[in-house]
Amino acid sequence: MRLVISTPFALVVERDGVGQVRAQDATGSFGLLERHADFVTALGPSVVSWRERDGAEGHCVVRNGILAMRGGHEVAIAAPEAVVGDDLDALERRVVAETGALKEEEACARAEAQRIEIAVIRRMLGYLRGERRALSGEAGGAFGEELR
Length: 148
Hints:
The protein has helices at 88-128, 133-136, 143-147; strands spanning 2-6, 11-15, 18-25, 28-33, 39-43, 46-52, 57-62, 65-70, 74-78, 82-85. It is an alpha+beta fold. The protein folds into 2 domains: 2-86, Sandwich (ATP Synthase, domain 1), CATH 2.60.15.10; 94-147. The strands form 2 sheets. Strands 2-1-9-8-5 form a 5-stranded mixed sheet, with no helix packed on it. Strands 4-3-6-7-10 form a 5-stranded antiparallel sheet, with helices on one face. A hairpin with a 4-residue loop joins strand 1 (2-6) and strand 2.
């Protein structure tokens, strides 16, 4: 069986000789073997695991996505994000670290957006009060100064 996992930016996994694939959707965990009927499901955050015919195992954490079994011989997964690893424990540590960094970046971006929103509101209020310098960019009313 062939397994393909892709994101919008990369082909993450492309394996031939896969004997079984396991994943999880909203109904629970499931497994696919070769010659399974055509099948499509939406994946939530999930670990996709597979075992190749030679016994080698692989794992991929996907954040949402669509899994399709086609023709009984190909499992294709399209996901916005995917992280691959052979060792499940190491993969978990990597995903936790990347998720923490992403949450920190998102918090900084939210704070910056709020700061800009407050500056825009201040400028609009100044304009509505008739303060000419609020929109003119004169000293004391420059956009950059109000952002600080």
